[in-house]
Amino acid sequence: MIFDAHSDLPTYVYDMRKEGRSKVLDNEFKKFFGDHIKARVMAVWTRPDKRTQALRYGLEVINQLYRDVLESERFAIVTTVNGMREAIKNDRVALWIGLEGGEPIEDSLDLLEIFYRLGLRVLTLTWSLRNTIGDGVFERTNGGLTNFGVEVLGKAEELGIVVDLSHINEKGFWDALETTTFPVIASHSNARALCDNRRNLTDEQIKAIAEGGGVIGAVAIPGFVDKEKPTLDKYVEHIIYMVDLAGYQHVGLGFDFVYYLKGWKGEVIEGFENEGKIPALLKKLNERFSKREVEAIAFKNFERVFERVVG
């Protein structure tokens, strides 16, 4: 049973439904979910060409996701951990709504609360660029959290929204940890010590998330696994490295598969190209870790954080 902490499927659902398709997730259930993914964060990504209309786009994507879910009996959009457990008990995949980048909330805590009422439970503070909350990792400046960003963290704590530090730059990362008293996640990030990419985390960042009770989700993007030859074995090496560094209780899975998105260039991890290869991943994890540790990495660690923050 897997809790995937980051998926861009809402983008795909939106695009396909705009082309006239219905039951997008249902019709491709086996490909996207299979037998293993039982909970997933559905991240609404404000892609670069939509940044000037982020609020409208974010609302439309969430609306199309709700419509798609309503057309199927395989899914449930959940807002509590008990709701997630009930969905899984009833043989449905539990879908959490997230924002990948705070662009849709503009500079308004009211908008953040409105998104919360629409089901938002995970907020990735920035994508890779600057917004009203702070600077992303690819912004040329090194600004940390803005004053508004500090207010956003306070509101997230008040409402019960999980704060996600993937994509934020290092200064903003440390600002966030100094600002919040809640555990945070990095939903889709790997170890920079194994792959020197700005989107990956330093040892100090990994340990800091763990010390606060949070979780890092190992990401299956080739360029974050290995710059020369990304393979399943090297992906597993990131998981092992972070477990050795921070403890198995603080590592999870945040695949971020993007093979289905328009403009995808075809790069893949050899042996772990898509969700269909999850059995191969679980086999390798079971060879390296105990059953208890694999269950924690695959599902229970993120479940613990969500229960603490969201309830």
TrEMBL record:
Superkingdom of origin: Archaea
Q: Give the SUPFAM superfamilies listed for this entry.
A: Metallo-dependent hydrolases
A GO molecular-function annotation? metallodipeptidase activity
The cross-references to Pfam families, in alphabetical order and at most eight, read:
Peptidase_M19
Give the record's GO biological process terms.
proteolysis
Q: Which InterPro entries match?
A: Dipep_AS, Metal_Hydrolase, Pept_M19
Q: Can you name this protein?
A: Membrane dipeptidase
The source organism is Thermococcus paralvinellae
